[in-house]
Write a structure and sequence with these properties.
Helix content is 34%, strand content 33%. It is of the alpha+beta class. The chain has a single domain (2-168), classed as Aminopeptidase (3-Layer(aba) Sandwich), CATH 3.40.630. It starts with a strand and ends with a strand.
Length: 170
């Protein structure tokens, strides 16, 4: 697993886009509808690379023994003056072929450790209520803050509730 600089995000854009497409095709509610066009996924990662260059987003990626991207997570820093102590875990992605081996937990832990090491004291995230990701966050010590009905459409376009979580890093 490695933290990617903006140039590395750009260089790995095709693999990251394929990972995002796999997640959406697999039912992950990460902001896109299925089928996700690989060009749209690549454009999202291009924007993420710009945010990484600007110090707003950090990106971690994991590869298998053959060098294929198997997972990624991003940490987005709040840029408002009154929120510089917090960040958001966004787009925790694990390829369907790599699930169930603890990769999501390791990616999450890497983002949390970096957040704490760089002075963030509070993290937030949201996930589809009842999803496997929700169970991961609970087991990793995140606290449920609340649930919002019909917050976001799943990849099939059906409105689903979203559970908000937070974690103090102090």
């Amino acid at each position: 697993m490695e933290r990617l600089a903006a140039d590395a995000v750009r260089a790995r854009a095709a693999g990251l886009a394929a990972l995002l497409v796999d997640a959406v095709d697999g039912g992950a509610s990460v902001g896109f509808l299925a089928p996700l066009d690989p060009a749209e996924a690549a454009a999202w990662w291009a924007r993420a690379a710009e945010e990484t260059a600007g110090g707003v987003r950090d990106v971690w990626a994991a590869r298998d023994g053959h060098g294929r991207l198997t997972g990624a997570v991003t940490l987005v820093r709040t840029t408002t003056a009154n929120g510089r102590h917090r960040g958001e875990i966004a787009r925790l992605l694990v390829h369907r072929a790599a699930r169930g081996r603890g990769l999501g937990r390791r990616l999450l832990a890497a983002a949390e450790a970096h957040a704490a090491a760089t002075g963030l004291t509070l993290l937030v995230l949201d996930t589809q209520t009842g999803s496997p990701a929700e169970r991961l966050y609970r087991s990793a010590g995140w606290t449920e803050t609340g649930t919002i009905p019909d917050y976001a459409a799943d990849p099939a376009g059906v409105l689903r509730p979203t559970t908000l979580f937070h974690k103090r890093l102090t």
